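@channel anyone free to eyeball this complex?
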Amino acid sequence: MTSTTTGDTTGNPPRRRDRAAREREILDAAEQSFGERGYQGTSMDDIAARVGVSKPLVYQYYGSKDGLFLACLSRLRAQLLEVVSDAVLAGPDVERSMYAGFVAWFRFLDDHPRAWAVMVDEGMLAAGPAAEAADQVRADFVDLIATMVRLNLPAAHEVDEDDIQVVAQAISGATERLAIWRTRAGGGPPPEKVARTLMRLFWHGLDTTRGGTP
Amino acid sequence: MTSTTTGDTTGNPPRRRDRAAREREILDAAEQSFGERGYQGTSMDDIAARVGVSKPLVYQYYGSKDGLFLACLSRLRAQLLEVVSDAVLAGPDVERSMYAGFVAWFRFLDDHPRAWAVMVDEGMLAAGPAAEAADQVRADFVDLIATMVRLNLPAAHEVDEDDIQVVAQAISGATERLAIWRTRAGGGPPPEKVARTLMRLFWHGLDTTRGGTP
DNA sequence: GCAGTAAGTTACTCGGAGTCAGTTAGACTC
DNA sequence: GAGTCTAACTGACTCCGAGTAACTTACTGC
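replying in thread with the prediction:
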């Protein structure tokens, strides 16, 4: 008998909320729980309890555990992609864009350690539509890198699309692994240093992708 | 009286087997099942049934699902590491060793698609001792690469150990991602071509790791 | 006030990880 | 060949978490 209607005399939030608001609440709780305890360690009951809601509601909005996880993943990846894209677009030339992209990537992950924990767990998705969707999200980064690689090539030059894909996948895989390594090692070298080393490693090789030495 | 000793008159395998033999049987079955259906899709009952044994026996030998999965993972990684190491050691110089290592890596994964499926799933391991052990197994590759990078440096040169770690992690991550990409894409470019592209990408950059341009 | 609907819940099923309390098969004596 | 010791092995559970069916309740527009 604390309250009869929504009009709460106390400052408590209303028991019933707008769907969009609830979805956001659930997503936030899920992101936190997945980040802290991993995919396996998180139960749907946990998340529901965290929001103060019952489990079927979570299912009604997100369909399944995979669906909820994927929603977290997509949101985080979108944020990360935005930060990195902005950094890249702001660069005065391709070389500095690339460096800025690396720095932005590692900085974001330093600043959002839990976000990263979620992304690393993406392999958790059982094979199926959710796993494919996760791949799609990841492919955005590969596209961004591929674009940069192409920009760095002289205008009218024969381009081997396979090579570009290989290079883009390689760079994306390298940065992903470095991110994992840095967080596991509890820090590692600072973003700028890692970015410098990567530039030294990749930059000259990128030139040769124009197709010279066999 | 079909038999008095282990010597069975029928061709049937003995119902009771030596522990080591059973362990191997279970490991084989697990590898196959994990490879076909993934970590989530495989149940301990499945594996036990495949061997023709009851579940508690599997638990007695491997402790947990994670433990069994880790055992598979370790064995496969060891095989892969051996193949790649051999290729690298056989090379006449560092450049050709590295190329040979790349080719061996991608070839092995082409020839053992199921093995790779298991390795990709390694993120499945719940956080804990098993996950750490999995990291250890992976670190072997990083060490191998780091050794090659060091060999490529001029004898008496100041070496930044951080840089070497970054480079080794980057190369390892790149090849891992490429392996995933190639199997997903159902082939992709052949091992030799990918290896050539990687050499073009990395080889020049490796020179500059000696510490020149800031 | 009352119908209609969106938000929310209780109380389940079902499957798979992990365990307990045993039961044999075979080896080794005497 | 009967006894006995041990390691391989099992039936029958518990427990937890994903997912669901059927129902109730607060708010909205009229």
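from a first look: The two ends of chain A are 80 Å apart (CA to CA).
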